[in-house]
Amino acid sequence: MKRQFSLAHLTVLGCAPPEMTYIAAMAGYDYVSIRPIYMGLPGEPNYDLVVNKEMMKQTKRALADTGVKLHDIELARIYEDVDPKRYLPAMEVAAELGGKAVLSSIWTPDRNFYIEKFGELCDLAKQFDLTVDLEYVPIASVNTLARAADVLRSVNRENAGIMIDTHHFQRARDHVEDLKALPREWFHFAHLCDAPGEIPTEKDEMTRILREARSYVGEGGIDIASIINSMPEMVYSIELPNLENVKVLGYAEHARRCIQSAKVYLDANPRR
């Protein structure tokens, strides 16, 4: 089966969905993973396609022109006092554009609350035939494989999934044996990137690498092959923000090198 790749939002942060789609097509990606849910982070561009009707129209045209498809939207965060219904308009956009999944993460320590709200999010997404895939993040509240698995077992929704990011997996000091033990139906897509093998002890440095200094696949210290080969074959969304590389190469060449390095690495580390 031909491997399929998606270009993730953070890899080309400064590109709106239409430009991102054309870059993805030129570089050889099958999908894009966009962020139409505005999070209000410092310096974050607003790509809310519900509000920006012209950008929505341009995105539809770019998808039609290139044949690239939408894979997933982000980021439906579960945080203190969130009402998951606020993500309904973005889910409608995802469905209209042919998307498959909603990426989520959990940023509140209140387990009873986040289990309830993640379940609600899954129920809302189901009407659009979207999965909700939980990404555990080293700086978030749900920050390990075990905690993410606990959420999926607790909500027990058919459209709930777990999304493994190779950077986060290594930073959480998780083990591939635990990954192999999880239900295969939980896996819909994964995030590929590399990073220095040494795990930062300071949260600021962890955050800096996570947001702006990840490495091309095979150029860091993460045993990506062991992680990827412990899961089913699926779409690989390349989330590889690197501000220095973008400054030197530009977004289009950075995106091309992201997929090229991933293909070379995966070819050199086949499944056994």
From TrEMBL:
Residues 24-241 form the Xylose isomerase-like TIM barrel domain. Keywords: Isomerase. InterPro entries: IolE/XylAMocC-like (IPR050312), Xyl_isomerase-like_sf (IPR036237), Xyl_isomerase-like_TIM-brl (IPR013022). PROSITE patterns: PROKAR_LIPOPROTEIN. One of its GO terms (molecular function) is isomerase activity. It comes from the Bacteria. Gene3D superfamilies: Divalent-metal-dependent TIM barrel enzymes. This is Sugar phosphate isomerase/epimerase.
